[in-house]
Amino acid sequence: MSQTLPNPARFAHIEAALIDLDGTLVDTLGDFNVALNCTLSELGLPRVDTAAIRERVGKGSPHLVASVLDCIGASQTQYFDAAWALYQRHYEAVNGEHAHVYPGVREGLDAFRARGWKLACLTNKPVAAARDLLRRKQLDGYFEQVFGGDSFERRKPDPLPLLKTCEALGTKPERTLMVGDSSNDAQAARAAGCPVWLLSYGYNHGEPIHAVDADGVVDSIAQLS
Q: How big is the CA angle at 71 (ends 158 and 186), to the nearest 5 degrees?
């Protein structure tokens, strides 16, 4: 069960929002499943199931590929370079085809814009893939900035991407809300000094989302409006 819905008054000081992509705006598990299993098939390796993939999403695409190889007992030394090259090709081909926008996302983003908030999409997915997915799902027009896992020297849960994105938006961290689906987002926000709310439906590495240190958990982005 999600926590009590936030009182809109608590967001009165907010000027901007940084919003995660996979597991927050768009359910991309189907895309990961197809791209990863096509990769493994080409390498003559066993398939991986969707549950195992779900637990490994969120720390960037190289980590996803590496952790899936570990999951099936395949040597990273032997397979990673080939798997990474194949995965990028397969993911680019299916990006968005097996994914869907979560209920309440558009309504929530519309409400954020109606408040005059500046919006940025901040993900650990490679930025080119992120921009392409947002475009394919007709979400790109909401965001002033889009940054990915390869946009900065470090990825979430490091606070650097949040701090850099706040700079790009011209806002202070304490006035910038982080919206995500995992401990990566929450840890980064806490370290950066941003308030943070999480979604209950995402990919929190197989761990209970309510156990994460955040300001709250909701079932829809629209509930933050």
A: 25
